[in-house]
Amino acid sequence: MNKVMGIINLAGEKDSLAELTKERCLAAVPFAARYRLIDFSLTNMVRSHINEIAIFARNNYRSLLTHVGSGADWELNKRHGGLYVLPPYWKEKDTLGDVDYFLHNWDYIERSQADHILISGSSFIANTDYHKLIEQHIEQDADITLLSTYAPSAAHSEIQRLAIQVHDKFVSNIAVNISDAPIFTGVYIIKKSCLNHLVHYRSSDERSNHLIEMICDNLKTLKVCTFAHREYGSFITSLEEYFRENIRLLDPQHYLKLFQQGKNVSTKISNYRPTKYESTANVKQSIISTGCRIAGNVERSMLSRAVTVKEGSTIKNSIILDHCTIESGAYIENAIIDKYTVLTEKDLIIGKIDKPHIIGKLNQVSMVTES
């Protein structure tokens, strides 16, 4: 039977969420009030019976290590297989592509009995499994099978994404600006023998040190197929996308598409008491996590764990992360407030719906701020 191991490749991801990725990598960014972005990649792999998973850490990964720990919350704390966080491969200059990470950790990959490697990042958010992707890949005896999507969020984004062009059932081109073509999600499965050849036997004229671009350069000699993801999916590669995709989940229709019944997303367990709503609390169309204490006004917003909203304060259309305190008199609208921030009675934080204002971690805000 063919065996598949998983690699969550953070080496090729950019920490592009402004203050949110100043001290943490993209994979460790909180999402949907109680999760981190990496939770979806881990859950999807485990649900696909992939029980040997490595994470290529790149930088700012302390928060990531604290979150994933031994992998116990995903049932990956195993004697054989399990979860491994592989540290960065440092050079004097930060010019590494992810190929160097595969080379540097090849001894780990080689020891695996897996015949195929399923590679994912953390920026594509979906709640799914990869059984059919793996099955098609093996049945077609493909060297590589790319997961594609027609995600609406990608179509309306100003960010250029790789699209996939297919000819005679095989991928003929992977590039930006291909009209009416499916978008590459960053998830793909590759034969271990093919991966070995690509990273170890590069020709002198290879244009890049990134694996996906090496695949592009070898489309004529490789059997590269595609598999369509037809369920809910979104991309988180900019602060605007992060804000929009979180706020979209306040619509029950979108929320139930991502968090489907019977498809729980695993995350680190945190034992907080239930949220307490004071008699003065006024909460509308919001997601409130555990451990909060609400006495003020919260409208169409998302609050992570242990947030305190005092009487006389107002939060509208905003994302408030763990352990923030919103004092009486503070007003927040169209904003993202990172962990442990204290907003005082003098604080007026107003952003735009398409350009939210962001307050970084551990801020004691004491001025009027508008954007």
TrEMBL record:
Q: Which Pfam families match?
A: Hexapep_GlmU, NTP_transferase
Q: Does the keyword Nucleotidyltransferase apply?
A: yes
Xref: InterPro entries: ADP-Glc_PPase (IPR011831), GlgDAde_trans (IPR011832), GlmU/GlgC-like_hexapep (IPR056818), NTP_transferase_dom (IPR005835), Nucleotide-diphossugar_trans (IPR029044), Trimer_LpxA-like_sf (IPR011004)
Which GO molecular-function terms appear in the entry?
glucose-1-phosphate adenylyltransferase activity
**Keywords, ordered alphabetically:** Glycogen biosynthesis, Nucleotidyltransferase, Transferase
Report domain Glucose-1-phosphate adenylyltransferase/Bifunctional protein GlmU-like C-terminal hexapeptide positions.
Answer: 278-351
- Domain Nucleotidyl transferase: start-end pairs: 11-153
* EC category name: transferase
Coiled-coil residue spans: none
Documented EC number(s): 2.7.7.27
Q: Which family does it belong to?
A: Belongs to the bacterial/plant glucose-1-phosphate adenylyltransferase family.
* Name by which UniProt lists this protein: Glucose-1-phosphate adenylyltransferase subunit GlgD
Q: Which organism is it from?
A: Gracilibacillus xinjiangensis
